[in-house]
Design brief:
Length: 728
C-alpha cells in the first residue's frame, strides 16, 4: 500500500495554480470593507460621527443613544455588503483571534422577522470566558467576561460577517486579552511623550506610537503539509533529515516569486486592501519556500489588529490555493526561521516623527531626547523586553544561534555613536555661550536630516535604529505584536516620565535653561547606558562573553526569560503606568508559562508517536527485507556468503542500533514527562519540561533522521524536507 506520503506527492503534483483576477486599482479597493472615517461620514448623522471621532481621538465616552445610532448605521452598511452575521472580534491570550457569530436576524412574532443590531450589541457582549486562558483570574470571582467595543479600531466586513474589534475583560475588570494592556500602554506613552514634547513645541497635544511589522512565513503545499502529523499538530517538523540542497546557494532570497505563491499573494493582498491593511511589500526570503509581507506602518493598536487579522486571513486564502502557511518561528531545522520585525516610532499630532532627525538644531535636540530616552528605557528593562518575546516556538531562534540572540542590545550605527560621544563631553551644569553655539552648530546641528541611508545595517541586532525608527527584530513570526508593543511603549513611557522629572528639577533647583537641563540629563544617560549599545556581531560567541561582563541578561529559554515578567520591578512598573494591575501581571505570567508547558508536552507526544509508530515499524519492515536478502544470499553463495552479505549485515545492525536509540529515548522522555507532570509549581514544571523533557527531542530526532538516510525511500512514511521545501 503506498504511503500517505506518496498520496500527498501525487496530489500536490496535480494541483494547478488558482488564477486570480485583479481588475480594480488597489487605491480604489482600499478600505472598502471597513467602517472607516469615510464610510462613517456617509452613514452616520453629524452628531454620531462627531461622537465616534471624539472617542477615537480623545477617548471620550460614547453614550447609549449615540451607540444606538452608530449600530443601526453600521448594520445598514453591513447589509448593503451582503452581511448576515456580526461578531465581537477579540484577541484572547491564546495568541489567535476569537469570534462568536450572531445573526442580525430576529423574529418579532406572527411569522415576521427583521434584521436587528442595537447599541447594546455593539457596545458589549458576554462570551463565556471560562474556556479562554485567564491565569487564575476567573477562579477568584466568577466565570463571566465581556467584550467591549474599541472604537479606535474600525469595524470591518470579512466574508459575510461584520467584525467589531473589542477588548476582552473579566467581569471584575481585569484584562483577558492582548489589546486592553496595549491600549493602556499607548495612553501612557502618549501622556508622557506629550509632556516631553512641550519642551520643544507647546502645540503638541497627542503623541501616537506607530508600528510597521514585517511578517515572515513559509508557504508549502497543503497536501504535503497534511501528510505530516507534526506539521498538522505542532506547526513545525519535529524530525526530518535536511535536504541535500537547502539555502546554501542563496538562490531564493529576492528571487522571482514562484507562480503558486504569487497567486496566493495577489489574492491575499487584495483581501488585505479591502480590509484596510495597507500591504506594500512582498518578496522571497532566505530559505526555500519562505516569504515576507510588509504593510505601510500604522498607529500601533490598529497595526496590531491588522497583523492578527492578517495571520488569520493568510491561512484561509492559502487553503483555497492548496497551500499551507507556516507561521511557526522554526518549521524546519537547518534553514532560517521566521521572525516579525516590529518597526516602532513615535509621532506627534503636529506631524513630526520624534525618532527622525529634523532640519534645525532644536528639532534635532528633540530627536536626540527621544532617541536617547529609548536607549535608556531598553537599558533599564532589557530583561523585560526579552521576556516580551518569549515563547516555546521563538526559543528556536533566540539563543539558538539564529536571527537575533537572546541578549538584548541596541544598534545605532557609526554616525550616531559619534554624536553620543560628543554629547558625553558636555560641561556639567551651566553651559558657556561658546559651548552652546558649538553644540548647536557642530553637534546637534550636524545630524543629517536623512540618516536613513547612512545607518549601517546590522542584521544581527535585536533592536536596531534604522534612520527614523527602531526595529525590534527579535519578535517571533507567530507572536501577537500586542505583547512586545505593550512592553516597549510602557518602558518608554516610564522613562520619558522620569526624564521630565529630572529636567524640571534642574530647571527649578539649579536654575538651568531648558536646553541646558536637557543636555545635562542626556549626558548622564549616555554615560550610564553604554552597556546596552553594541555594534558588533550578535551571533558570535565573543558577544555572549562580553555581554555577561557588561551585566546583560542572556535568557535563552522561555521559562528563564519569563521570570522578568513578575519581578517586583515589573509589577511596580505596570502598576505605576496603569498598564496592568499586579493580578493581571501575575495572571499573564501563569498563562504564558502554562502555554509553554503545553506546547512542549504536545510536541513530546507527537514526536513519541511518530518515532515509535511510524519510524520504528518502517525501519523494522526494511530490516526484514534485508534479513530476507541475507538469507537468500546464504542459500546461493554458501561459502562466499560472508563477503557478499557484509554490507547488508552492517545495515541490519545499524538499523537495530537506531531503533534501540529511539525506543530508549522515547521511554526516557515519557518518564521525564510523567515526573514533570507531578510538579504543582508552574515554574518548576516549565523548567522540567525545558531542561529534562525537551533535550530528549534532539536525541530521538537524531536516530530518526539517521534512519531516513538508511531506509528504502519508497516505504519512508514521512514527506521529506526536499519535498516540503522544493514543491512549488
Ligand atoms: P527592511 O527592514 O526590510 O529593510 P525597512 O527598514 O524599509 O525594511 O522598513 C520596513 C518597515 O518599516 C515597513 O513595514 C514600514 O512601514 C516600517 N516603517 C517605516 N517608517 C516607520 C515609522 N516611522 N514607524 C514605524 N514603522 C515604520
Ligand atoms: Mg526590517
Amino acid at each position: 500500500m503506498p504511503t500517505l506520503r506518496f498520496h500527498a506527492i501525487k496530489e500536490s503534483l496535480s494541483n494547478k495554480p488558482v488564477l486570480v483576477e485583479e481588475n480594480e486599482r488597489r487605491s480604489k479597493l482600499f478600505g472598502q470593507n471597513v467602517f472607516n472615517e469615510n464610510t462613517m461620514r456617509q452613514y452616520l448623522t453629524k452628531d454620531a460621527f462627531m461622537g465616534v471621532m471624539n472617542a477615537v481621538k480623545f477617548g471620550k465616552k460614547i453614550d447609549r443613544s449615540l451607540a444606538d445610532q452608530v449600530s443601526s448605521s453600521m448594520k445598514d452598511w453591513a447589509l448593503s455588503k451582503g452581511v448576515t452575521h456580526y461578531t465581537h472580534w477579540f484577541q484572547p491570550l491564546t495568541g489567535t483571534t476569537a469570534e462568536k457569530h450572531d445573526a442580525f436576524f430576529e423574529t418579532v412574532g406572527d411569522g415576521i422577522a427583521i434584521e436587528k443590531f442595537g447599541g447594546d450589541q455593539l457596545v458589549q457582549q458576554e462570551p463565556d470566558a471560562s474556556s479562554f486562558p485567564h491565569g487564575g483570574i476567573r477562579n477568584t470571582f466568577e466565570a463571566r467576561g465581556y467584550t467591549a467595543w474599541d472604537p479606535t479600531s474600525p469595524a470591518f466586513v470579512y466574508g459575510t460577517t461584520l467584525c467589531i474589534p473589542t477588548i476582552f475583560v473579566a467581569y471584575t475588570g481585569e484584562a483577558l486579552d492582548y489589546k486592553t494592556p496595549l491600549l493602556r500602554a499607548l495612553q501612557a506613552v502618549d501622556a508622557a511623550a506629550t509632556e516631553v514634547c512641550k519642551y520643544f513645541d507647546k502645540n503638541v497635544k497627542k503623541v501616537t506610537s506607530s508600528l510597521g511589522w514585517e511578517q515572515e512565513y513559509f508557504l508549502i503545499d497543503k497536501a504535503l503539509a497534511t501528510s505530516r502529523p507534526d506539521i498538522t499538530l505542532t506547526g513545525r517538523t519535529l524530525l526530518g533529515h535536511s535536504s541535500a540542497k537547502g539555502q546554501q546557494l542563496d538562490d531564493h532570497y529576492f528571487g522571482s516569486i514562484p507562480t503558486r505563491a504569487f497567486n496566493f499573494m495577489r489574492e491575499l493582498e487584495t483581501e488585505c486592501v479591502l480590509l484596510g491593511i495597507p500591504v506594500k511589500t512582498r518578496h522571497n526570503e532566505v530559505a526555500p519556500n519562505q516569504f515576507e509581507l510588509a504593510p505601510i506602518f500604522e498607529e500601533a493598536n490598529l497595526a496590531v489588529d491588522h497583523n492578527s487579522l492578517l495571520m488569520d486571513v493568510m491561512g484561509r486564502i492559502a487553503s483555497k490555493h492548496n497551500l499551507k502557511v507556516l507561521l511557526h518561528e522554526k518549521p524546519f531545522a537547518g534553514i532560517n526561521g521566521s521572525g516579525k520585525h516590529n518597526n516602532w516610532s513615535l509621532s506627534t499630532d503636529t506631524g513630526v516623527n520624534l525618532l527622525a532627525p529634523g532640519k534645525t538644531p532644536m528639532s534635532n535636540l528633540q530627536f536626540l531626547t527621544f532617541f536617547i530616552n529609548t536607549i535608556k528605557a531598553v537599558h533599564e528593562h532589557e530583561e523585560l523586553l526579552r521576556a516580551s518575546i518569549a515563547s516555546a516556538s521563538n526559543d528556536h531562534r533566540l539563543g539558538a544561534n539564529e536571527a537575533p540572540p537572546a541578549i538584548i542590545s541596541v544598534f545605532i550605527g557609526q554616525q550616531l555613536t559619534k554624536v553620543l560621544e560628543e554629547l558625553e563631553g558636555v560641561t556639567k551644569g551651566k553651559l558657556s555661550p561658546e559651548e552652546k553655539t558649538e553644540l548647536k552648530l557642530n553637534v546637534v546641528g550636524k545630524i543629517p536630516d536623512v540618516l536613513l541611508d547612512n545607518t549601517d545595517r546590522n542584521r544581527t541586532s535585536p533592536f536596531a535604529f534604522t534612520g527614523n525608527k527602531f526595529e525590534f527584530r527579535a519578535v517571533g513570526s507567530l507572536a501577537n505584536c500586542g505583547n512586545p508593543m505593550t512592553i516597549l511603549n510602557t518602558i518608554v513611557a516610564k522613562q520619558l516620565q522620569d526624564f521630565k522629572v529630572e529636567v524640571d528639577k534642574l530647571i527649578d533647583k539649579k536654575d538651568l535653561k531648558k536646553d541646558e537641563a536637557i543636555f545635562n540629563v542626556l549626558r548622564e544617560y549616555i554615560k550610564s547606558t553604554k552597556s546596552i549599545l553594541f555594534e558588533g556581531n550578535g551571533y558570535g560567541k565573543e558577544w555572549e562573553v562580553e555581554a555577561k561582563k557588561r551585566g546583560l541578561s542572556n535568557n535563552k529559554t522561555t521559562p528563564e526569560a519569563l521570570k522578568a515578567k513578575i519581578s517586583d520591578n515589573t509589577i511596580k512598573l505596570f502598576e505605576e503606568m496603569n498598564v496592568m494591575s499586579s493580578i493581571e501581571t501575575k495572571a499573564r505570567y501563569e498563562i504564558e508559562m502554562e502555554a509553554y508547558i503545553m506546547h512542549i508536552q504536545i510536541e513530546g507526544r507527537v514526536l513519541g508517536d511518530i518515532a515509535r509508530n511510524h519510524i520504528v515499524p518502517t525501519a523494522v519492515k526494511y530490516q526484514n527485507v534485508l534479513i530476507e536478502n541475507v538469507k537468500g544470499l546464504k542459500e546461493i553463495f554458501d561459502k562466499k556468503f560472508t563477503t557478499v552479505s557484509k554490507e547488508q549485515i552492517n545495515l541490519i545492525e545499524e538499523i537495530s542500533s537506531h531503533i534501540e536509540g529511539i525506543n530508549s529515548n522515547v521511554t526516557k522522555m515519557i518518564n521525564e514527562r510523567k515526573k514533570a507532570n507531578t510538579l504543582e509549581d508552574v515554574e518548576k514544571k516549565a523548567l522540567a519540561y525545558c531542561n529534562d523533557v525537551k533535550p530528549l527531542f534532539d536525541d530521538i530526532r537524531y536516530h530518526c533522521d539517521k534512519l531516513e538516510l538508511l531506509v528504502d525511500d519508497e516505504i519512508w512514511p514521512l514527506t521529506k524536507y526536499r519535498e516540503l521545501l522544493f514543491t512549488r
